[in-house]
Amino acid sequence: MKYSKIIEDIYKQVLSEDNLGTAPTYIPELAQVDPNKFGVYLYSLNKQSYGVGDCEERFSSQSIAKVLSLCLAYSIIGDKLWKRVDVEPSGTSFNSLVQLEADNGIPRNPLINAGAIVVCDILLSILEDAEADFLNFVRELANDDSINYSVLVAESEKSVGYRNFALCYYIKSLGNIENEPIEVLNFYFKMCSLELSCKSLAYIFSFLANDGIRMHDRVQILTETCTKRVNALMQTCGFYDESGEFAFKVGLPGKSGVGGGIVALLPNHYSIAVWSPKLNEKGNSYRGMKFLEEFTAQTHSSIF
């Protein structure tokens, strides 16, 4: 299928409509981003790639990076991971404290804040230098050594991250954090500050559309079974309490971040990334959701 014309037409259509939603002001540094930025990039496994708009401009990946930290931990310790974090949709907001008490400090899944914090703790325990090793992992996936964290965004998020502090200390009190909470949180904020473009995101996530195999050197990052499980988690938990809506309207495994990015994939076919900073009331990119709904409708590409 020729994707370029479809992408261009939908991009123009969404661009011409009202850009509803609001910029995330609770992280001061993210509030500085131009709310009218809009980019799309598709990476097809048959090497037919296409981008439009601000697709090569880097932005704060935020929660999208949680999938990558999960993949790194999963590739090292395998199914032992699931003793520390569950695989169920949460049904509550991404930074909810309520379920942790009922679930004895085991977060519902690795893509909500509590779960990603536990994954960061695991990486701190098993890696020599978690910050450097995670960054290298992402650079290798992207085939791009220029990718980096944003110290400004990490510090900005840390300065107002009271709920994440509460989550981490609470999980520690329930025995599911091994390291010092401040070390875990420093790594967590750094991880979320990772700056990626739509182009690099679409390429990075292509291994999850390709049975866990990295495209440029055919290295197996995750086994086929583990890849299916990560994709299943993205399908059921990738959009917090809008995950059901995304499955209903778009029908692809994916992950959003409050930086306005969304990445999604169709196994064996493509990965696609969209960036537009204004968010809907559930914290997902307003234009990104509209674009992807229309894209899967017009290309008849859904896992269902």
TrEMBL record:
Pfam families (alphabetical): Glutaminase (PF04960)
Entry keyword annotation includes Cell division: no
Domain of life: Bacteria
Catalysed transformations (reactions): L-glutamine + H2O = L-glutamate + NH4(+)
Subunit text: Homotetramer.
SUPFAM superfamilies: beta-lactamase/transpeptidase-like
Binding site for substrate: S63, N113, E157, N164, Y188, Y240, V258
Keyword terms of this UniProt record: Acetylation, Hydrolase
EC number(s) per entry: 3.5.1.2
MF GO annotations: glutaminase activity
EC class (word): hydrolase
Name of the protein: Glutaminase
Keyword check for Hydrolase: yes
Family in the record: Belongs to the glutaminase family.
